[in-house]
Amino acid sequence: PTRKKIGLIGAGNIGGELARLCANRELGDVYLFDIAAKENFAKGKALDLEQNGSILGYDSNIRGTSNWADLEGADVLIITAGIPRKPGQSRDDLVATNLPIIRDVANNAKKHCPNAFVIVISNPLDAMVYEYMRVTGCPKGKVAGMAGVLDSARFQLFLAREAGVSVKDVRAMVLGGHGDDMVPVLSMTTINGVPATQFIAKDKIQSIIERTRKGGGEIVTLMGTSAYYAPASAAVAMAEAYLLDQKRLLACAAYLDGEYGYKDLFMGVPCIVGGNGVEKIVEIPLTEEEKGMLAKSAASVQGIVDVVKKS
Ligand code: APR
After folding, report:
1. Which pLDDT tens digit goes with each residue over 127-178?
2. Is 112 a catalytic residue?
3. Where is the active site (predicted)?
4. Radius of gyration of the chain (CA)
5. Do 182 and 213 meet the contact criterion of CB atoms below 8 Å apart?
6. Of 53, 154, 236, 311, which one is least surrounded by beta carbons within 10 A?
7. Which pTM was predicted?
8. What is the mean pLDDT of the chain?
């Protein structure tokens, strides 16, 4: 078989949108996995999406399953297993529920999909991806967390609307942990190379940064559950970079082994993503203020990781 095999662990809101995007782009055959109690739900969603292919014109097979054996040899795994936030909750509030879930997923993935490139979306993101690597012992380049692409997308949208320019021309990167201390790198934020500060006043940029930091929560408050369209698109950009060896420069939660001065921690940093996974962490110059914000963000990630290590 020459088709790639994509395992989506969690067939909920993000899982369904992930399946739709992967099939639409014909990235491979899709296995939509959920727990036994939701196997029929996964199978139904898969069938609906497969039928969608005869209208939209894609040939990807989409299967629903609760049997890890079906995921044997997957090329890519995207993990959304767990519960999402409810209004008033922080991502960190999910740790008690989602920790046993990521451990279950990691143990099975280690057994059935040892060579997959793994993208974790479950929250609290930076701690969940850390735990995935700790349990599986997989190489550091084969696992990354999805947060930076999404947080950057939110930042870019708000900047584009404020500046009155196309969102296509806004370049920005949000680094650090996927929490309220995330770090939008203003020194690298441009409208197609032109510093964003030329279009938007500093105080307005500051309020956009605040909105970006709480961007996930804004949607949770409105919808009662967490976002899923943009999170799925962000993870698919990462999966596609791997499957098509695109060597994209994307902000991903990657394992730090001294980069930016941090060790044994996952956090959002600029990464080259290609056929070997996270191929390189790119160290960009940060201002003193940005370094300070990154340190604060790293400390809050470390706090959750410490909780995870003790549990
Ligand atoms: N293995 C596989 N799937 C599981 C497991 C498990 N051990 N435990 C739970 N799940 C499934 C649930 O049954 C559910 O169908 O994960 C799915 C999650 O789907 P949703 O509840 O719709 O949540 P979603 O919005 O997709 O978010 C998933 O991503 O962004 C994060 O904070 C979010 O942690 C949450 C995750």
Report:
1. 999 999 999 999 999 999 999 999 999 999 999 999 999 999 999 999 999 9
2. no
3. 178
4. 19
5. yes
6. 311
7. 0.98
8. 97
104 lines ligand 1 (CB under 6 A): yes
Atom of ligand 1 nearest to the CA of 104: 7
Ligand 1 close to Cβ of residue 146 (< 6 A): no
Cβ contacts of residue 148 below 8 Å, gap of 6+?
Answer: 173, 174, 175, 178, 250, 251, 252, 253, 268, 269
Residue 203 annotated as binding site: no
Q: Is the CB of 179 under 6 A from ligand 1?
A: no
Report the length, in residues, of the chain: 311
C-alpha to C-alpha distance for 175 and 190, rounded to whole angstroms: 16
Portion of the chain with pLDDT greater than 70, in percent: 100
Q: Both tokens of residue 89?
A: 């909750």
> For residue 54, which amino acid is it?
S
Cα–Cα distance measured from residue 119 to residue 242, given in angstroms and rounded to the nearest whole number? 11
Residues 6+ apart with CB under 8 A from 241: 247, 248, 250, 273, 274
**What is the sign of the dihedral through the CA atoms of 136, 137, 143 and 144?**
positive
Question: How do residues 200-256 score in pLDDT, each as one tens digit?
Answer: 999 999 999 999 999 999 999 999 999 999 999 999 999 999 999 999 999 999 999
63 marked as part of a ligand binding site? no
Q: Would you state the structure tokens that stand for residue 176, as one six-digit string?
A: 């650090």
State how far the alpha carbon of 116 is from the alpha carbons of 63, 93, 109, in Å. Answer: 18, 29, 9
Beta strands in the chain (DSSP E): 5-9, 29-33, 62-65, 76-79, 117-120, 143-145, 170-171, 174-175, 183-184, 190-191, 194-195, 248-257, 263-274, 277-281
